[in-house]
Amino acid sequence: MNKKNSSLVQIRNLYKSYRRGNQIIPVLDNIGLDIKEAEFLALMGPSGSGKSTLLNLIAGLDQVDRGTIKIGRVEITSLSETELAEWRASNVGFIFQFYNLIPVLTALENVELPLLLTGLSRKERRRHAALALELVSLQDRMDHHPRQLSGGQQQRVAIARAVVTDPTILVADEPTGDLDRTSAEEVLQLMERLSVDLGKTVIMVTHDPRAAKKARTMRYLDKGVLTDAPEISFTEFL
Amino acid sequence: MLLKLVLRNSFRHRLRSLLTVAGMGVAVLAFALLRTVVSAWYAGVEASSANRLVTRNSISLVFPLPLSYRDKIRQIDGVKKVSYGNWFGGYYIDRKNFFANFAVEPESYLSLYPEYLLPDSQRTAFYRDRKSCVAGRKLARRFGWKIGDTITLTGTIFPGNWDFVLRGIYRGRDDTIDENQFFLHWDYINETLKKTVPRRADQVGFYVVGIAAPELAAKTAEAIDRAFKNSRAETLTETEKAFQLSFVSMSEAILTAIRLVSFVVIVIILVVVANTMVMSVRERAGEYAVFKTLGFGSFYLAALILGESLLIAGLGGAAGIVLTFPAAKAFAAAVGNWFPVFKVEALTVYLAVAAALVVGIVAAVVPIWRVVSVRVVEGLGRIE
Ligand SMILES: Nc1ncnc2c1ncn2[C@@H]1O[C@H](COP(=O)(O)OP(=O)(O)OP(=O)(O)O)[C@@H](O)[C@H]1O
Ligand SMILES: [Mg+2]
Known about the structure:
The structure holds two protein chains of two kinds.
Chain A: E1 7-20, E2 23-36, E3 40-44, H1 51-58, E4 66-71, E5 74-75, H2 81-91, E6 92-95, H3 107-112, H4 122-135, H5 151-163, E7 169-173, H6 181-196, E8 201-205, H7 209-214, E9 217-222, E10 225-228, H8 231-237
Parallel strand pairs in A: 3-8, 3-9, 6-7, 7-8
Antiparallel strand pairs in A: 1-2, 1-4, 4-5, 9-10
Helix pairs in contact in A: 4-5, 5-6
Chain B: H1 2-10, H2 14-41, H3 43-47, E1 52-57, E2 65-66, H4 69-74, E3 79-87, E4 91-92, E5 100-104, H5 106-112, E6 116-117, H6 120-128, E7 132-136, H7 137-143, E8 150-155, E9 160-172, E10 181-185, H8 186-196, E11 203-204, E12 206-211, H9 217-227, E13 235-239, H10 240-248, H11 252-283, H12 285-293, H13 298-335, H14 346-373, H15 376-381
Parallel strand pairs in B: 5-10, 7-9
Antiparallel strand pairs in B: 1-12, 1-13, 2-11, 3-5, 3-12, 4-8, 6-9, 7-10, 8-9
Bound molecules: adenosine-5'-triphosphate and magnesium ion.
């Protein structure tokens, strides 16, 4: 980054629609968004407003119709599928609502998985994975399989998997959507720490105002249009 | 780690995987056994020498030729040695005990068939004793015969009970040689016929003609047949291979059917394995989407799926091939008399291995294509 305060993520004039049969469904309409480095941003909005769509575009999982997304020095909207895959592997960490761990792998192996795409030796990979599990306080569950862990523990393994490659951005789509309050609290605290202590840029889609409150900034998406979270609608949510 | 993943994925549905592996095993076993039946049928053809011609009556094998032809054949260009014999068609104790037995001129016959290995002492003993015989090793083992035993055959073509003293037991030079044959002196039969049915004496069923080189086969055969044109018994001379093939060709249609079935079995199992793979991969669509999300490319996904498919097909194939040997043995024991040589050939094993590989690869094609072509967000959508 050349300037300390410049935005890490720059989105300009972004349009996205889906085609269903011969019907075109506009989802995102002229989105512009800047996200600073080490930001912890919550993205809220009613169901079907396009939150997941926007998050997927920022994470390089889908192609835009029009507009640009620049992350760091890379304009990801001009990358090919293969280039995008490589870019994702080293720049983005993913946290899903349903954890999405691989059931036949242990916690440690799940965390190790993204490191297969790096040049690290087996020993190095193990060490990094173990450290990441320590970060989420699951070092004593390394050899457990996902089904032997609680939802909250699984989500913490998923967070370890997301950070193990040391990405710049973490994207989380309703990370607490499937968790009880205590587990959700733990997960949110972890994400906050990742942003504050480790300087990760965290973008989180959530329905949960409590979760949103943990974030430093909040954006609101309604029918594909992005606004600053209005005080009124925010309180209405509560 | 990828290997571990392939291994664990393969046996996630233990029952389904085991059933597929078992099916694959049975299919490969069936494939190999059917191929072995076909090659056993052709074993006589394979073992035949390109240096030998067989001359027989042009009308049919059941009509004889006069013994006097021997000297005329000898004089034809390209002919090195002539022997002759008859299908004796006797049985031992019971008609069910079928085996090939020929009345031949011993010295010339055995010298034309160097692939029958016989110790010199046994060979001379056989030549000396007109009422003696020689049997193949497998045949002798089957009936528990030992050198010096007197063996009584009941004639079907030459009526009566005939006693022969076993003077030799021959071995085949290699596995393709029939060790179930039985040879006796043509002279002995002929002498008896002279006394009992003189009009059947001095006649032979076939001449075996040794030629100098395989290239001479066509020309020499033609010369022999020309020499007996318009005579009382016209001849038909072919290479031994063609002669053997004329037996096999009667069953050519059946053999083709068996071959076809052996491939159909593989196609069926291919469909079964492919179905298993499609089911497994569909269930894990979300996981493959996660791999893609994390940045794993098509190459990794293809390797994961192909590895799993190859593992299942390979395990089944290996089991099938291993089981083929005892199964072939049991099969040979049950119907051994029909096939003098019933052995699993190396080629059959290679074909079975190739079949397993092809099944493993082809079964993975559709699932790989599906996983690779589905878009990440759609793949993820299935779990969210
Ligand atoms: N692959 C797709 N094909 C067609 N339409 C899609 C696809 N993905 C999303 N959509 C549509 O785009 C719109 C926005 O979807 P999106 O998932 O971004 O909403 P969301 O804000 O995340 O909703 P929720 O809060 O329910 O998760 C919806 O109308 C949805 O039906
Ligand atoms: Mg969503």
